[in-house]
Design a protein that fits this description.
- The protein has about 300 residues and is an alpha+beta fold.
- The chain folds into 2 domains: about 80 residues; about 170 residues, no CATH class.
- About 50% of the residues lie in helices and about 15% in strands.
- It contains 7 helices and 8 strands.
- The protein has a 6-stranded antiparallel beta sheet with strand order 1-2-3-4-5-8.
- The chain is elongated.
Length: about 300
């Protein structure tokens, strides 16, 4: 009877999976040790000298060994979290299909978000470069003003400066106060001559003086590409014609974003036929003013 009961206990211990089974198995284990094993030992002592007793001793020892193995197996299973332990433990892992699905989802998310992240990063780079150039150039003009006096006489009226005269002007008023790498001559598609100055930030600016005043065009990527992402135009001592044929100058004491003939309506910065800032523009002169009006940050409606 006790052998059958011990076997049942062993079976229950080996298949236990839940905390309820764990409690029952532990109680069965204690019951086996406290109740049946002393009886086994007593029977062994009482039948030690008989032949039948010898068989029972052998039988009882074997049963006792089975019970011990059962208890050990049950205890081992409990240490393994309620499942049977083996030397070759089965480890959890992802299937190939699960890995491929996960990689596919990551790829889709990346494809959706990366273009936006890259565009935002490029905008920040351009914002920083334009703002820094504007600040440094204005500082150079103000330092030059402290040394060379009032700016009224800096630019000769109604005169087209040659390339050599432009370089002379830069060497007197700007180069001593703003670093540059080199300067060379450049003529645009309209025939306007510029002194093209390369600066340490990797960009360059085109400098020109004609009868209407001074133009400074900054190319952020260092290439002569005309588009809202790269060309940013400024002005100094710029003459504009007003009613009754009278003359008026803008930006006499500092560099300012290009605003010739601007009516001070933000919408016209986009729609002006000659200087408007829009995709595919061939001049894009008003783009700089749009950024300045937004605190030197590229606005959401900027034609990027």
């Amino acid at each position: 009877m006790w052998l059958v009961e011990g076997s049942k206990i062993c079976h229950r211990a080996l298949v236990a999976r839940s905390m309820d089974c764990f409690t029952n198995a532990r109680n069965d284990e204690k019951y086996l040790l406290s109740t049946h094993l002393p009886k086994i030992r007593a029977r062994n002592d009482g039948n030690r000298h008989s032949e039948g007793g010898a068989r029972r001793i052998f039988f009882n020892k074997r049963s006792f060994a089975i019970a011990q193995l059962c208890i050990q197996a049950h205890t081992s299973s409990l240490r393994c979290g309620g499942s049977l332990c083996k030397n070759d433990k089965k480890k959890a892992a992802f299937t190939l299909a699960e890995v491929l699905i996960t990689l596919g989802v990551i790829g889709i998310v990346a494809a959706m978000t990366l273009p936006t992240l890259i565009a935002n990063y490029q905008k920040k780079v351009v914002e920083t470069k334009v703002k820094t150039f504007y600040s440094k150039l204005n500082q150079a003009y103000w330092m030059s003003y402290a040394f060379n006096g009032d700016t009224v006489d800096w630019v000769e009226e109604y005169k087209y400066y040659s390339y050599e005269e432009m370089v002379d002007w830069l060497e007197k008023y700007i180069f001593p106060y703003m670093k540059h790498i080199d300067v060379r001559e450049f003529t645009d598609s309209n025939g306007q001559v510029f002194a093209l100055v390369r600066i340490p930030d990797g960009g360059l600016y085109a400098f020109s003086i004609n009868k209407d005043g001074q133009d400074v065009i900054y190319f952020a990527n260092g290439k002569l590409e005309v588009n809202p992402r790269n060309k940013f135009q400024f002005q100094f001592s710029k003459r504009i014609e007003v009613a009754l044929g009278a003359d008026k100058k803008q930006s006499m004491n500092f560099i300012d974003p290009y605003i010739v003939n601007w009516d001070e309506e933000r919408e016209s910065l986009f729609t002006n036929g000659t200087w408007g800032c829009r995709k595919g523009c061939t001049n894009c002169a008003y783009c700089t003013k749009l950024i300045q009006l937004n605190g030197w940050e590229i606005p959401d409606d900027f034609p990027w």
